[in-house]
Write a structure and sequence with these properties.
The chain has 365 residues and is of the alpha+beta class. 42% of the residues lie in helices and 25% in strands.
Length: 365
């Protein structure tokens, strides 16, 4: 009879529209744990818990059949665990106050932890190399991680953990999956998940993103058959928060100086005031524009320089320093460097200072 009762209890639990989390936060009796649910665009607080004398806590999360939930556990600003919870899951989490944890009872959560660990390891190496000025090594870090992500999602196309991997960003303007052909990967994962959890809000969001990326890929393929422009195009975040496209600047200007620099160098800031500003004031009314690309890794340094110097031209910066896609496209290894576009074409003129720039602009405008 006892065995029968246990079986009935297990059946009831498995049919429940809830998942149960049992956790231990090491060496943290009486600590406050916040349970948050990720909707796809924001995190919502579901519950606030207190650990017992042994650091233990537990909670239940509502989960509908076929609609797993992504749930985070926090202590203050420290994320203690990332979980993918299915209906009837009973998950055990053991973590410490630094954010290291183990998880049992959920294969999906274990996969997500693996993905999170790989991302955290990559970001630590990438940020360190970027801070030390080793751009080539940071680029290799990125390529290696990107390949690892592709391998992960191709091996786990029916896991929500793959959705989270596809959404990774190095910063707000640099998604890990940033190539047009990545649309094919997004479509593959979406179609696979549709076969197992078609009603999931996360799968729906992935489908929308896959659709947008497919449109961009189709556009890129169409542009391959279009007449080539005479320069690599750029789209970068500007000082005013918008995104500025170089080709749009070229379309509205007779001549455009594409200027790569860094505000971290005082000499280059002086060059703005002593050379570029006088030239800009003289030739801007005649159709001259400057598209100034900062390769500063610290965007606050760049923003302060633009504000304090009151630079009137287009100022853009993605905060990635020497590994910025803009630097890669223009093969930039040192700054300052300038390229002059006239009537939409890259000129072969050598411009080494104010005299050269004024001479060329006087002839072209």
């Amino acid at each position: 009879m006892a065995l029968a009762s246990a079986a009935v209890a297990a059946a009831i639990c498995s049919c429940s529209d809830k998942a149960v989390i049992s956790g231990v936060l090491s060496d943290a009796p009486g600590a406050e744990i916040t349970v948050k649910q990720f909707s796809g665009s924001a995190e919502t607080v579901l519950d606030t818990l207190k650990t017992d004398a042994a650091g233990g806590y537990s909670c239940k999360v509502a989960v509908k059949e076929g609609q797993p939930e992504l749930v985070y556990l926090y202590k203050g600003d420290t994320k203690l665990a990332s979980l993918i919870l299915g209906k009837g899951d009973r998950v055990k989490v053991v973590s410490d106050t630094l954010g290291s944890y183990t998880v049992e009872g959920s294969e999906e959560s274990a996969l997500l932890k693996q993905a999170d660990d790989e991302f955290n390891s990559f970001m630590a190496a990438f940020s360190s190399d970027l801070a030390s000025g080793d751009g080539p090594k940071a680029s290799r870090d990125y390529v290696a991680y990107y390949r690892k992500c592709i391998k992960f999602v191709m091996e786990n196309p029916k896991s929500l953990a793959s959705v989270m991997v596809l959404s990774r960003k190095i910063n707000e303007n640099f998604p890990v999956f940033s190539q047009a052909t990545d649309a094919l990967i997004f479509e593959t994962v979406h179609d696979s998940l549709q076969t197992v959890i078609p009603e999931s809000k996360y799968v729906a969001a992935l489908g929308r993103e896959a659709g947008l990326r497919r449109k961009q890929l189709d556009l890129d393929l169409q542009l391959k058959d279009a007449p080539e422009i005479g320069y690599p195009d750029l789209t970068l975040p500007s000082y005013d928060g918008s995104r500025k496209k170089l080709s749009e600047t070229v379309a509205s200007s007779k001549a455009v100086l594409v200027y790569f620099w860094t505000a971290a160098d005082a000499a280059q800031k002086l060059f703005n005031n002593d050379v570029l500003l006088p030239v800009y004031n003289d030739f801007h009314p005649k159709g001259f524009e400057i598209y100034s690309v900062s390769l500063d890794a610290d965007k606050s340094v760049w923003a302060d320089a633009v504000k304090n110097q009151k630079l009137p031209w287009i100022n853009v910066c993605d905060g990635l320093g020497s590994v910025s896609p803009a630097a890669v496209l223009y093969n930039i290894y040192t700054v300052p460097v300038a390229f002059l576009l006239v009537d939409g074409q890259m000129t072969s003129e050598t411009i080494e200072g104010e005299k050269d720039l004024r001479r060329v602009l006087s002839a072209k405008l």
